[in-house]
Design a protein that fits this description.
The chain has 293 residues and is α+β, with helices and mostly antiparallel strands. The chain contains seven helices and twelve strands. The strands form four sheets. Strands 1-6-7-5 form a four-stranded antiparallel β-sheet. A four-stranded antiparallel β-sheet has the order 2-3-4-8, covered by helices on one side. Strands 9-10 form a two-stranded antiparallel ribbon. Bound molecules: zinc ion. Zinc ion binds at residues 259, 261, 268, 270, 285, 287-288.
């Protein structure tokens, strides 16, 4: 599932490729991708609009259009945007078929014979078309916590928020209310760095360890943004290339590999293990990350 770094990479690509360009036509192949609106209405309102400003909030991309509208996306499991060129041989009625991609759910024809595809194998991704003034009031966006890469949001703010929860730590990272944009990959990596077992109860973690965990979350997300995300599962960028951060993951998807942590010059003897925490596959080193009771 794309998380903050992957979504940021797509937002950056969209700024590069779509900004100031007009939408000439819209094709909807899977109407459920469009939230709260019929496919007909969605298409009709978008034709003739231009992308004016594009930014990310949590795992959402907000594309500001002219005439006070905004196109908002959430990728959920497998959604992503792709830019494609229409072949010379493509007929005017078949522009959305190139390149042949049976997972394209919605396609936007731009100028200069290019098409922006919203491709989504699992079909959980969503697009909203709303007045710009209503974006921050969308229920899905309203409850989002602060942006972890925002310098105005610090470890103490995170500690204060986490203290409101009585349960175990991992779901607190995933629920988006204390820190926006983090998901399974970067939660596992950051808990590993902080040597905290994902099933540790929040009230058993001292303030200084929670603050340290936040610093690792920020460092992991910043590094992954630099590497244009991790291509775990289906994630690719708009030109179809993979993100590079996958090479740097220490526990996520590394089951059976030796733990890379070094202490006093010697390597940890642990082996990365996959467990289930709050219904999510979770990767830990059972030697470095022990549950405090
Ligand atoms: Zn270890």
């Amino acid at each position: 599932m794309p998380e903050l770094p992957e979504v940021e990479s797509q937002a950056k690509d969209l700024r590069h490729w779509a900004l100031n360009r007009p939408i000439k036509a819209v094709w909807v192949g899977w109407p459920k991708t469009i939230a709260r609106m019929s496919a007909q209405k969605f298409s009709k309102r978008l034709i003739g609009r231009r992308f004016k400003k594009i930014w990310r909030r949590g795992k959402f991309i907000i594309m500001e259009l002219d005439e006070g509208l905004a196109l908002v996306s959430h990728f959920r499991m497998t959604g992503h945007f792709r830019l494609a060129n229409i072949k010379d041989s493509t007929s005017a009625r078949e522009w959305f078929l190139y390149p042949p991609d049976r997972f394209t759910r919605v396609a936007f024809k731009l100028d200069r014979d290019q098409v922006l595809h919203f491709s989504d194998i699992r079909k959980f991704g969503r697009l909203w078309l709303v007045p710009l003034s209503e974006v921050s009031r969308l229920p899905e966006l309203k409850s989002l916590g602060p942006e972890p890469l925002d310098p105005g949001f610090g470890p103490q703010d995170f500690v204060k928020c986490a203290r409101r929860y009585k349960g175990i730590i991992k779901p607190v990272l995933l629920n988006q209310s204390c820190v926006a944009g983090i998901g399974n990959i970067y939660a596992d990596e950051s808990l590993f760095d902080a040597a905290i077992h994902p099933k540790t109860r929040v009230d058993k973690i001292p303030d200084k360890d929670l603050a340290q965990l936040f610093k690792y979350i920020r460092a992991n997300l910043a590094a992954a943004v630099k590497h244009r995300g991790s291509s775990v599962g289906e994630f690719i960028n708009m030109k179809g290339d993979s993100g590079e951060h996958g090479f740097y993951l220490r526990v996520y998807g590394q089951r059976g590999k030796p733990c890379q942590r070094r202490r006093d010059g010697t390597r940890c003897r642990g082996t990365v293990k996959r467990i289930v925490v709050a219904q999510r596959g979770t990767h830990i080193c059972p030697v470095c990350q022990r549950i405090k009771r």
